[in-house]
């Protein structure tokens, strides 16, 4: 059995703190997520130490190993699942309740990371819509421990050297794969990918299996390693390639703290072994599994803001302490009848049945609470309670998704109608990323006599030939079709360019080179560039549904709802400071080359802060920044009200303009 080391619990405390601060959105801790990497190394070390010693002592049992893992993880986690379902049933939208149920099943079967790989980018504001997002790391650990014990046990049948060679080989292979994914422009899910993370657990395992230990220069080595552990969350940025190479400092520092050891006599060990720090380390698992759930619930309720964060943290700590002492400890260390395999498996079986039946009970209890065919603005917003903008099929209709707007999940070729120029009607080209696609319904509505050509792809900002802002086949196709078919044509009457223009495109000159190409091709005077708009801290549709529940369907006012939304939703913190400067620079460059410019940031403004609801009561955004169909029609109307734009449109002679 591995001897207990209190400094490892202290190290857990230093790892959970930055994770929580990062998830709370504190700007001074941009790299707090690296705490998870320390957990991975520690987990690999401790579990491999246990397995290796038991195999060598001929007492290893798969049944005992997996029952220990179950007692360690699942009792408290099941309480989290129950709390998630309870909160979602009482407060959340129907759509999010079913999403929570899906996330629970993904977590139960240890495939959370795969689920989120296809559903969410870890660093987007939309992460707060996924109430069990943090379980991705637990799934990776358990996937590792489904494979690892069997492989090591079989290798030990040959020899210990064989087991060591196997673990080293697997760790190196995972490390190389992680480097490939992290440094690839494709950004193919490296953050959540199991095999791109196994090397971190494997390194901890190698330390255990080789029983590495340093007994000289203990204090300097541990001091440097601790400095890296403490500094990394302040220095690592979300945009850095991750986990390779940005996780390497934290991983190696954790290894050094493990192997530089002389019995805990050094200053660093004594510091990490202070009672309060050790206690935080002991409850770190409870803190981890509860904090994100409470943060997301607070966010949905409009309480996840600076002035309320101390209270949210206090609730998190109190719930975690309670969970540790009432649930986690009894199942691990309590009475033998509670820790028995029969008791634990019965508890898990009953809980699993409850989780399976709860969504069905929810469906029977609520049925459909909104009209199938909403007729007014109130009903249209409340309809999003049951089916989201994307899930209802409205995104495909409004954005021309899968045909003229391509995402990683769609086919990577454009329908011919998206770029085929009409011979007998005006042609308007709408080009860009999702911030172009979300205007599509608006331009099609406002210009009924024109053909709207559309080439748009997720994160595919148009710049110059061959320069891509995302390594996606759809982006390549959009770039090629624009420069080979659309731009050379004399039949295009009006060009509309819209994107989430990034500061890097301005800094590296790509945006200006794009403007030069418009001027050189003689189309600057019939081009309109729509600037970068703000993105938000919350999904707008969800918050609108929550707010409307407290308003009368007969007496609610758009102005009142807009005010309520502005009380909860702010411009995303990562964008708030830089947006005005980006807007001014885009405008300056456009004017320099004679291209008309519309400030999307400007037309979003409202006396309340941001205009989320139109004067007619229509919801303008469905997620954290993309327009609904009604929002597109409304915003395009605002764009056309700009005198400079209207002059270009009138000159283009693109037919009737519908009000």
TrEMBL record:
Keyword Transmembrane helix included in the entry's annotation: yes
Single biological process term from Gene Ontology: lipopolysaccharide biosynthetic process
Alphabetical UniProt keywords: Acyltransferase, Membrane, Transferase, Transmembrane, Transmembrane helix
Superkingdom of the organism of origin: Bacteria
Transmembrane segments: 35-52, 73-91, 97-118, 130-156, 162-183, 217-236, 242-261, 273-296, 308-327, 347-367
Domain SGNH intervals: 416-633
GO cellular-component term (any): membrane
GO molecular function (one): acyltransferase activity, transferring groups other than amino-acyl groups
Acyltransferase domain span: 7-321
Keyword Transcription: no
Xref: InterPro entries: Acyl_transf_3_dom, Acyltransferase_3, SGNH
Name of this chain's protein: Acyltransferase family protein
């Amino acid at each position: 059995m591995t001897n207990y080391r209190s400094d490892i619990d202290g190290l857990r405390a230093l790892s959970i703190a930055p994770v929580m601060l990062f998830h709370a959105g504190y700007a001074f801790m941009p790299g707090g997520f690296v705490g998870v990497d320390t957990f991975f190394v520690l987990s690999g070390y401790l579990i491999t130490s246990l397995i290796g010693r038991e195999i060598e002592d001929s007492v290893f049992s798969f049944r005992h190993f997996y029952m220990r893992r179950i007692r360690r993880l699942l009792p408290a986690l099941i309480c989290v699942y129950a709390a998630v379902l309870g909160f979602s049933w009482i407060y959340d939208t129907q759509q999010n309740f079913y999403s929570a149920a899906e996330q629970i099943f993904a977590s139960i079967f240890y495939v959370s990371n795969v689920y989120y790989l296809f559903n969410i980018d870890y660093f987007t504001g939309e992460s707060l819509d996924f109430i069990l997002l943090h379980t991705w790391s637990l799934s990776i650990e358990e996937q590792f421990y489904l494979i690892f014990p069997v492989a090591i046990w079989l290798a030990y049948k040959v020899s210990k050297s064989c087991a060591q060679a196997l673990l080293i080989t697997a760790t190196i292979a995972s490390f190389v794969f992680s480097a490939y994914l992290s440094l690839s422009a494709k950004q193919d899910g490296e953050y959540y990918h199991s095999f791109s993370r196994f090397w971190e657990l494997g390194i901890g395992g190698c330390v255990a299996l080789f029983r590495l230990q340093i007994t000289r220069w203990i204090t300097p080595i541990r001091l440097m390693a601790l400095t890296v552990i403490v500094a990394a969350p302040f220095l690592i940025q979300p945009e850095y390639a991750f986990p390779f190479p940005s996780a390497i400092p934290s991983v190696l520092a954790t290894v050094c703290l493990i192997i530089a050891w002389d019995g805990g006599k050094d200053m660093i060990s004594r510091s990490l072994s202070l009672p309060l720090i050790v206690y935080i380390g002991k409850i770190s698992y409870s803190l981890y599994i509860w904090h994100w759930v409470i943060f997301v619930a607070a966010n949905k309720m409009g309480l996840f803001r600076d002035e309320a964060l101390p209270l949210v943290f206090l609730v998190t700590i109190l719930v975690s302490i309670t969970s540790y002492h009432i649930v986690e400890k009894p199942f691990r260390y309590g009475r033998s009848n509670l820790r028995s395999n029969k008791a634990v498996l019965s508890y898990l079986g009953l809980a699993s049945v409850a989780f399976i039946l709860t969504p069905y009970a929810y469906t029977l209890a609520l049925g459909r609470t909104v009209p199938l065919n909403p007729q007014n603005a109130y009903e249209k917003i409340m309809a999003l309670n049951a089916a989201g903008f994307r899930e209802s099929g409205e995104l495909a209709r409004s954005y021309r998704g899968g045909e003229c707007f391509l995402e990683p999940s769609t086919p990577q070729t454009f329908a011919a109608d998206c770029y085929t120029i009409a011979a007998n009607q005006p042609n308007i080209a709408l080009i860009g990323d999702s911030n172009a696609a979300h205007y599509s319904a608006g331009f099609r509505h406002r210009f009924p006599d024109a053909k709207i050509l559309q080439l748009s792809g997720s994160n595919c900002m148009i710049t110059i030939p061959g320069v891509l802002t995302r390594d996606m086949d759809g982006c390549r196709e959009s770039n090629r079709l624009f420069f080979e078919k659309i731009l050379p044509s004399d039949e295009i009457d009006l060009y509309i360019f819209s994107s989430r223009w990034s500061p890097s495109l301005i800094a590296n000159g790509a945006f200006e080179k794009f403007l030069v190409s418009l001027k050189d091709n003689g189309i600057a005077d019939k081009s309109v560039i729509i600037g970068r708009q703000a993105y938000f801290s919350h999904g707008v549709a969800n918050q609108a549904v929550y707010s409307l529940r407290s308003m009368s369907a007969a007496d609610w006012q758009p102005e009142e709802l807009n005010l309520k939304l502005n009380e909860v939703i702010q411009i995303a913190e990562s964008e708030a400071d830089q947006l005005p400067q980006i807007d001014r620079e885009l405008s300056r460059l456009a004017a320099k080359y004679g291209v008309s410019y519309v400030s999307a940031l400007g037309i979003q403004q409202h006396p309340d802060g941001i205009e989320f609801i139109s004067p007619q009561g229509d919801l303008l955004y469905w997620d954290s920044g993309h327009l609904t169909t009604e929002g597109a029609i409304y915003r395009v109307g605002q764009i056309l009200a700009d005198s400079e734009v209207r002059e270009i449109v009138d000159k283009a002679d693109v037919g009737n303009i519908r009000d």
